[in-house]
Amino acid sequence: MGDDPTRTAYRTCPLCEAACGLELTVSGDRISSARGDREHVFSHGFVCPKGATFGELAADPDRLRRPLVRRGAGHEEVSWDEAFRAVEAGLRPIVERYGPQAVALYLGNPNVHTMAGGLYLRPLLRAVGTRNIFSASTVDQMPKHVSCGYLYGNPLAIPVPDVDRTDLLLILGANPWESNGSLATAADLPGRLRAIQARGGRFVVVDPRRTRTAQHADEHLFIRPGTDAFLLFGIVHTLFAEGLTDLGGLAGHVTGVEQVEELARDFTPERVSAACDVPVERIRGLARELSAAPTAAVYGRIGTCTVEFGTLTSWLVDVVNVLTGNLDRPGGVMFPLAAHLRPQARPGGKGFRTGRWHSRVRGLPEVMGELPVATLADEIETPGDEQVRAFVTVAGNPVLSTPNSERLARALDGLEFMVSVDPYLNETTRHADVVLPPTDPTRKGHYDFSFLGLAVRNFAAYSPPVFPPEPDSMDECDILARLTLIAKGAGAGASPAILHDGLLDEALAKVAAAADCSADDLRAQVSGDHPAERLLDVALRTGAYGDGFGLRPGGLSLARLLDAPHGIDLGPLRPRIPEVLRTTSATVELCAPPIVADVDRLRSALDRRHDDDLVLIGRRHLRSNNSWMHNVPALVKGRDRCTLQVHPTDAARLALADGDRAEVTSRAGAVNARVEVTDAVMPGVVSLPHGWGHGVPGTRLAVAAEHPGVNSNVLTDELAIDRLSGNSVLNGIPVAVKAAGKN
Ligand SMILES: Nc1nc2c(c(=O)[nH]1)N[C@H]1C(S)=C(S)[C@@H](COP(=O)(O)OP(=O)(O)OC[C@H]3O[C@@H](n4cnc5c(=O)[nH]c(N)nc54)[C@H](O)[C@@H]3O)O[C@H]1N2
Ligand SMILES: Nc1nc2c(c(=O)[nH]1)N[C@H]1C(S)=C(S)[C@@H](COP(=O)(O)OP(=O)(O)OC[C@H]3O[C@@H](n4cnc5c(=O)[nH]c(N)nc54)[C@H](O)[C@@H]3O)O[C@H]1N2
Ligand code: SF4
Ligand SMILES: [Mo]
């Protein structure tokens, strides 16, 4: 740093899926400002209010810098060695006495935003050896994984809308103006949507709320929560009835088309319109417009996943894309190819299935190696062999994020031992016996293992740490490595280097076997100052665009990415069918038997009436991020955002005025929230954001405690799940609302 303590650093923002490039002004040992990096190959200078607080977030005085151990009613700082000894003393006896199933893990959302999550969780899970693995995926996108698993044979092969080239985009249950996009990594998605309009295209939004995205759209259609599957089946029905299907280049790669026609037979626009409240002529119109547009894409997100028929809805999104010839073509929906991955040599594979084991208490099927988080409390509370007695959370706040959270919070108090890897003492980690805080994001390298595989344009970027580690702090890879070694029985004092070396050996052995060369020769060529960097180097060099350890000069490597602080553009998405397919038939299998069976359930719900019910949906705000960014003053200042939105007609009927308090009750629980009367929500629908409910005793979140809000997941019901994926139903919750006085 020399005499001038001010410098510029570039790094990818790790706070949401958009993967924007940040330009940081570094003054001494702090970040004095964060702006959009104008030269970034993907984000071109875009930044949102969250990214702009990157420095404040990292420097939050409430961020834990030393491990905590529970002493009596509170938590006390201890040394790292003492903390890991406490973990070993807490975990080992439980495993020895009751076996590995007595340990459960919950992996939260930020794991997909850290290199530690991408590289070190799998070894940890393997070492613990439990089937009681839970994650935020089953309160989020699991239905999309399952539908893609059946369609393409690979639950990770998720096609993304080619927003930069499409002529017509139909958006269901997503609000990128606030969320910045999800399962479609697209920095400045609002700008990219405006660009569709600027080049003469259109985008249409289907949402029970007139969101900011809906306001910018060419058309907004209200829909009754939880009924998108009906709307989409009505579109499919129309495509067949009017002879509008055209598989284009996909013909020959798709099986099950006739069966879809058969399945859609009962879902006439008239019948589905009564169920979903979208007018008949618009259902037919959407089908005609999607088929007539030069290119079109249907894209669904949270509002299509966290609902009763989440998997069917996610499946239907892709079915419409297939039937209109828009899967895997420019301007339609396409499969990205991330730099750390390699295309398959040959199409086809083992296919996809769920239910390789079942949860102990409710008998719910395993999906992608995990169980629905909706049944976590059951596994902790219900006595018997293999009852969960110890719990590990990594980057998760399930007490605010998962359904019937009051029950879960009570269940956590009944555990024999709990350890959390988390930088905050919050609503979940306050229950932990040991809290292990990783270094802040300015001190870790960043590569998006998850989101580069979901980007609407192929690109790669690596950001090295901005600052060296603070004394006495611990890197998240080291924390997870030490937990893994404890789980393996190597002891609390075992050096994390044992695991780091082991993982590199494993990666190199695979490459060496495939390339018929020596792992030692390869090891000598691997670069990187940090274990995660070395693993990334191997993945990049053997990945789709890699230098193949010298076989393809000029190809990607860690060194190439370090030389390109604004990222490397790898071009627009390219067709990948059939290579991407891992179904047994090596085709897109439209009608996997579990999907077909669930359509019966959907059909029987078609004529269900619920005219008197009010239903609850969630919402997101640009200056939030799930439950954990309410401690940054710049992000929570201003008006109370945790309000219950009620339509004026419902407000009048319930004798509620703007600003009043209302008691909201569901099967699971009750909250008392402030009312906001607005016609942005449709009649019969009320909306409360999730991730609030701070200010609980035993937490250390001073700013959030001043803006507590209420926890909407007190109302969501752990019994309501999407049958095929086990995903929680978080939208369309039946509730009763009654006046509870003035504010
Ligand atoms: N009702 C309702 N509920 C919902 C949703 C909804 O729409 N409605 N959305 C759901 C969705 S989409 C999601 S993804 C889940 C999120 O559910 P969770 O992942 O359980 O919750 P988050 O709020 O993301 O909490 C993240 C935790 O990680 C910690 N953390 C932050 N950075 C790091 C880090 O670098 N390392 C580590 N180890 N920890 C870190 C934070 O302190 C916090 O404790 O919530 C779900 N819950
Ligand atoms: N600012 C901000 N950004 C975020 C997050 C955040 O908390 N705050 N969280 C991040 C995470 S983890 C995720 S997963 C993404 C989520 O990204 P999005 O899915 O874009 O996020 P939401 O804003 O929840 O949008 C869901 C929309 O679905 C609507 N909806 C509810 N029920 C239904 C229904 O039955 N049918 C239809 N058609 N619509 C329905 C809601 O009204 C809402 O507008 O956002 C990410 N980005
Ligand atoms: S949109 Fe997401 S990635 Fe971009 S600056 Fe905002 S939080 Fe960061
Ligand atoms: Mo999420």
Percent helix, as a range, is: 25-40%
Number of helices: 26
Bound molecules: ligand MGD, iron/sulfur cluster, molybdenum atom
**Mean pLDDT over the residues:** 97
Subunit arrangement of the protein: single chain
Helix/strand/pairing category: alpha/beta
The strands making up the biggest β-sheet line up spatially as: 5-4-17-16-15-6-7
Estimate what percentage of residues fall within beta strands: 15-25%
Say how many strands there are.
26
CATH topology of the largest domain: the name is: Rossmann fold
Overall, the morphology is globular
Please tell me the total number of domains. 3
Spans where pLDDT lies below 50 across 5 or more residues: none
Task: Please specify the SSE layout and strand pairing.
Blueprint: E1 6-12, E2 21-27, E3 30-36, H1 49-52, H2 54-58, E4 68-71, E5 74-77, H3 80-98, E6 103-107, H4 115-128, E7 133-135, H5 142-152, E8 160-161, E9 168-172, H6 176-179, H7 189-198, E10 202-206, H8 212-216, E11 219-221, H9 228-241, E12 254-255, H10 257-264, H11 269-276, H12 280-292, E13 296-300, H13 302-305, H14 310-323, E14 333-334, H15 376-381, E15 390-394, H16 398-401, H17 405-413, E16 417-421, E17 434-436, E18 457-460, H18 476-487, H19 496-515, H20 519-525, H21 531-541, H22 558-562, E19 568-572, E20 588-589, H23 593-605, E21 614-617, H24 633-636, E22 643-646, H25 648-654, E23 661-665, E24 670-677, E25 685-687, H26 702-706, E26 733-739
Parallel strand pairs: 6-7, 6-15, 9-10, 9-13, 10-11, 12-20, 15-16, 16-17, 21-25, 22-24
Antiparallel strand pairs: 1-2, 2-3, 4-5, 4-17, 8-14, 18-19, 21-26, 22-25, 23-24, 23-26
The structure holds ligand MGD (2 copies), iron/sulfur cluster (SF4) and molybdenum atom (MO).
One ligand MGD is lined by residues 16, 109, 140, 172-176, 178-180, 182, 206-209, 211, 223, 225-226, 228, 301-303, 307, 617-622, 624-626, 731-732.
